[in-house]
Amino acid sequence: GNKSINAKLVLLGDVGAGKSSLVLRFVKGQFIEFQESTIGAAFSSQTVAVDDATVKFEIWDTAGQERYHSLAPMYYRGAAAAIIVYDITNQASLERAKKWVQELQSQGNSNMVMALAGNKADLVDSRKVATEEAQAYAQENGLFFMETSAKTATNVNDIFYEIAKRLPRL
Ligand code: GDP
Ligand code: MG
After folding, report:
1. What is the DSSP letter of 60?
2. Distance 160 CA to ligand 1 centre (A)
């Protein structure tokens, strides 16, 4: 039969990488050019149907500012999945993403499904991070990887769908 799964999902990554924009695109199908920065964290939910299950994502979109770092464990603790977001036009944001991956690997739950999102893939002329570099990093660290664009909607539903497929079936 068709299973219903509730899955807590957290978005982590540098300020400005596009976490809130990915959530807005996924949940409401919208994009805002001047997205306000997140204070603390924001909650929303969205349901995805995969072949054998209906997955309701309970999404925690975190702020990303260093001053809120101590709050992050509240959001990733008990999370079934995480999307770690960087901006393909900003090399420092990939380095920040790697720090989050390390933190999740040491503090997060051990069977968490982790995705690395190289966002702003529409900004091809400003690209600073090669696809191959991020892909290789993701592979070495057991994450799956997609380049996304919250602006054009490229791979946004897809990354959530791929996570839904990988969640353990209870
Ligand atoms: P957050 O701090 O990680 O939540 O990032 P935001 O979602 O607030 O986005 C930061 C800025 O980048 C905003 O001005 C967004 O409009 C812009 N942005 C987010 N995603 C994309 C994208 O895929 N493409 C482009 N061109 N801009 C984006
Ligand atoms: Mg935000």
Report:
1. E
2. 18
